[in-house]
Amino acid sequence: MAIIWRSASRMPIALLIVLCVAVLTACGSNPPPPTATPPPVGQWLRKASMQEERSWIGMASVEGKIYAIGGMTGSLGRRLDLTEVYDPQKNTWTYLRPMPTARSSVGVVAVGTRIYAIGGFPETGVTTAVEVFDTERNQWRTGLAPMPTKRFDLTLSAIGNTIYAIGGYDLREMNIVEAYDTVGDRWSSLPPLPTARYALQSLVVNGKIWAMGGRNADGPTDMIEVFDPATRQWSPGGKLPTPLAGFGAALADDGLHIVKYDLHYRYNFQSGLWSKLPAMLTSRHGLQLTYIDGLLFAVGGCMPGDGTLFDVAKNEAFVIRAPSKR
Fold this sequence. Notes:
Layout: H1 13-26, E1 44-46, E2 58-62, E3 65-69, E4 72-73, E5 78-79, E6 83-87, E7 92-95, E8 107-111, E9 114-118, E10 130-134, E11 139-141, E12 155-159, E13 162-166, E14 177-181, E15 186-190, E16 201-205, E17 208-212, E18 215-216, E19 219-228, E20 233-244, E21 248-252, E22 255-260, E23 263-268, E24 273-276, E25 288-292, E26 295-299, E27 302-305, E28 308-311, E29 315-319
Antiparallel strand pairs: 1-29, 2-3, 3-6, 4-5, 6-7, 8-9, 9-10, 10-11, 12-13, 13-14, 14-15, 16-17, 17-19, 18-19, 19-20, 21-22, 22-23, 23-24, 25-26, 26-29, 27-28
């Protein structure tokens, strides 16, 4: 647009303003787009719920996505074969191929892009089944070597290509530890867990496995015991801040987090101290916890009400830091 300037001193002020605005518009000068509001660090956010209410699920994260597997729902504990994937970027859940053996309290762990579902409690009774889900092909594979000891409410941890199946329950609490070679498809026995228990959690910390909490004949425990695969030995590892079973646990940038009901604790590895943090928005147990890119996701579980337990599809995220820009 061509504008011939003569004497600005003789030009009415209103006309001068109109011409200046026209010049800026013609030159493509637009205000900058609004910036996204960063999530509130140290607070819980409501995220998209699973597509079905369920508790005692298995859960694993692969390549920035969360996979919720199996579980149970209803007052009679209907066992589920559901497999759902959650995309934090889109805040959406998608159904995938169902697990071949419907079951609750199943041990689940990821090895690379594959997720192993081991043991658990189908409606026909406790199982030794080992099934693996290929996240790239959306396919389940069966026919793998069964776990030597049938059990549910066990915990799994993976180091390299080896899965460690720890504790669990079948008529009684167990201290059994068995290792599964995912390449050779074979099992081997390892030294037992010093404290027999079920409904526990385990995590890999600096190449060692922390077996935490759980329940036995004496009730919930605060015990932490550490297994060193290099020496094949167990050693004491301190205590949880309170006895817990059926809780969620995950490692994050700032330490180890555990959640259940109105409890949320963080363990600082440098100081060796536990601190209390804000509780989940929905009080529950029988849930799972995982950490992805600054957010700690608490998924599923059941909550008490009027003397009855109600399964939930809830998915809530605790903000540890602002997620990376993608």
